[in-house]
């Protein structure tokens, strides 16, 4: 069973691994990532990209094609042609070969989460306050 290392694009956090069989699909991988990260949105809202040339070194720095990068400020566009969207119905074996999976320090998958959802799936106190305030204001406006 291959172990793929994933990282969420544009957010703080360490790479995480997901065990998945070669005959499972990218859709199955999305579901496993959702469970691993405890996201509170549907798995099909995740977008997954195979990435080439991204590693994490022994100092836990991300390195893309030989250059140290800050993953928290990177966008998907930064990876240019070094990434490829993974269609949900494709098999893991169609996206990765054994040599890819067994490369030390390699990040295999870029994960893109919906913009409006915090990466933990949890909202801050400030966000909840804003939501409650907007709801109360709307209720008063609708009442009047």
Low-confidence stretches: none
Total number of distinct structural domains: 1
Rg estimate, integer Å: 18 Å
Overall strand count? 8
Q: How is the CATH topology named?
A: Ubiquitin-like (UB roll)
* Shape verdict: elongated
* CATH top level label: Alpha Beta
- Order of SSEs, N→C? EEHEEEEEHHEH
Largest sheet properties = 5 strands, mixed
Helical stretch tally: 4
Query: CA-to-CA gap between the ends?
Result: 61 Å
Output the structural class. alpha+beta
Estimated helix fraction: 25-40%
Would you identify the CATH architecture? Roll
Overall mean pLDDT score? 87
For CATH, the homologous superfamily is named as Phosphatidylinositol 3-kinase Catalytic Subunit, Chain A, domain 1
């Amino acid at each position: 069973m291959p172990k793929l290392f994933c990282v969420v694009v544009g957010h703080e956090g360490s790479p995480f691994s997901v065990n998945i069989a070669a005959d499972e699909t990218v859709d199955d991988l999305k579901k496993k990532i959702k469970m691993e990260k405890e996201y509170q949105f549907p798995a099909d809202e995740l977008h997954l990209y195979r990435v080439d040339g991204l590693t994490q070194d022994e100092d836990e720095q991300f390195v893309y094609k030989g250059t140290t990068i800050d993953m928290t400020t990177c966008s998907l566009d930064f990876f240019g042609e070094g990434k490829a969207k993974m269609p949900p119905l494709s098999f893991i074996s169609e996206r990765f070969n054994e040599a890819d999976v067994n490369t030390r320090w390699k990040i295999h998958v870029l994960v893109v989460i919906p913009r409006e959802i915090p990466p933990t799936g949890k909202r801050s106190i400030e966000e909840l306050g804003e939501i409650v305030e907007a709801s109360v204001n709307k209720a008063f406006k609708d009442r009047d």
